[in-house]
């Protein structure tokens, strides 16, 4: 695959054709949903694409208290006066930038009401508190992410929401992508980065274990960073991989056993 990296962009190594899909969605005013496990590169991908397209990026980490007003804006008291302050979604629409809603499924239901007219062919942001209705300019793009792996039956995206988005499925990168990513982010040498990525492959292949999700690329980079700074490999794996993945002594021991297979 062609390496599209140039030095002034946030580093992102493409896994497949996701950069083309993003560019085509953007060029045609289509919203994009990134699905995948935590720490696999979704946020970095959006940062890279925003910089590549020269667009301002407004990122919102969604949580179960996040309301439509948090995205759109609210009246605030400033120096005795009431002034309207745009929220990140409104700023992105006004600027013609990208608004990235990380873990959109966590947001409150009233957020969906705002997103629907913005993510179909109307492309309109309805601001009920000010009575304004903004038509999104052509460069505006809404990107959302969602982790289907979380077994949260109460929080699922409704078909009427997910069928408004072009979607890309993410997963942990293949070893030939993940190893150079780990090396570049941590400055660890190839041999030791390769061993960590092999360990990750074994952990991700575990089944029947009480692991909610496989080890993320983010954790591998943490482990690699500690090793590159001189920490003993087994200590770094313990602190950056085993402890973050599980609290269960049996599971932790199984992970140590896997590490012993790789590191002898
Ligand atoms: N293809 C890739 N190219 C470059 N860096 C990558 C890639 N994949 C993963 N990474 C690295 O993995 C780290 C974690 O990725 P990122 O923060 O984008 O995860 P995420 O999928 O957005 O996670 P979350 O859903 O928890 O927000 C990044 O800081 C980056 O260093």
Automatic annotation (TrEMBL):
Residues 31-165 form the ATPase dynein-related AAA domain. InterPro entries: ATPase_dyneun-rel_AAA, CbbQ/NirQ/NorQ/GpvN, CbbQ_C, P-loop_NTPase. GO terms for molecular function: ATP binding; ATP hydrolysis activity. Keywords: ATP-binding, Nucleotide-binding. Residues 178-260 form the CbbQ/NirQ/NorQ C-terminal domain. Belongs to the CbbQ/NirQ/NorQ/GpvN family. This is Nitric oxide reductase activation protein NorQ. It comes from Mameliella alba. The lineage of its organism: Bacteria, Pseudomonadati, Pseudomonadota, Alphaproteobacteria, Rhodobacterales.
